[in-house]
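> forwarded from #structure-qc
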């Protein structure tokens, strides 16, 4: 089974030529969490070659692009390297293969899909509600409305008053009933609340 994780490989060129340092990087969670790496996957050590050559160790000439390496029964594919590593290996006479593309991580693709579905179609701007409250407290817009409900059974036209509170962008609708109309005056047609668009 091939592990599909993003890795950074460091080869110690100052010490013994067979020392390898591998660090596992978070691909998606790194951006959402603290931004730090996920930790060391294989510590700095001499990594033996897979059997039957397990009496020998990996050295710098085993590292090449677009090539699979078996490290402790896990198969890794070296996909690319930076310019310093490319120049260093070229000076040593290593002919590098063409870089390969890293496979997509299914978990990261799923998280990206979920994050895109949660993004609103129109971005909302952060508003200072305390400032809005202090500036517009006790300021109410009043509108006269009309609702024609005559098409339904026992429906009548209704005269309404709409209050728009500027302090918190809430709406309240009251029904005005004419005297001697034979109707009870309801408490409120719509309680004060925020209305979605």
């Amino acid at each position: 089974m091939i592990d599909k994780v993003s890795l950074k490989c460091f080869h110690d060129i100052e010490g013994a030529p067979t020392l390898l340092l591998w660090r596992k990087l978070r691909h998606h969670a790194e951006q959402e969490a603290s931004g730090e790496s996920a930790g060391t996957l294989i510590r700095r050590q001499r990594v033996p070659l897979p059997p039957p050559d397990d009496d020998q160790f990996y050295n710098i000439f085993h590292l090449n692009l677009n090539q699979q390496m078996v490290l402790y029964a896990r198969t890794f594919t070296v996909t690319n390297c930076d310019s310093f590593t490319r120049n260093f290996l070229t000076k040593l006479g290593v002919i590098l293969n063409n870089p390969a593309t890293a496979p997509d991580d299914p978990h990261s693709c799923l998280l990206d899909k979920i994050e895109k579905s949660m993004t609103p179609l129109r971005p909302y701007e952060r508003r200072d509600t305390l400032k809005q409250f202090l500036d517009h407290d006790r300021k109410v817009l009043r509108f006269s409305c009309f609702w024609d409900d005559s098409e339904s059974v026992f429906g009548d036209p209704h005269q309404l008053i709409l209050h728009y509170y500027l302090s918190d962008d809430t709406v309240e609708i009251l029904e005005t009933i004419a005297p001697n109309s034979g109707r009870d005056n309801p408490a409120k047609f719509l309680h004060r609340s925020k209305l979605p668009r």
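QC bot note: The chain has two domains: 6-103, 129-193. The longest helix spans residues 106-118.
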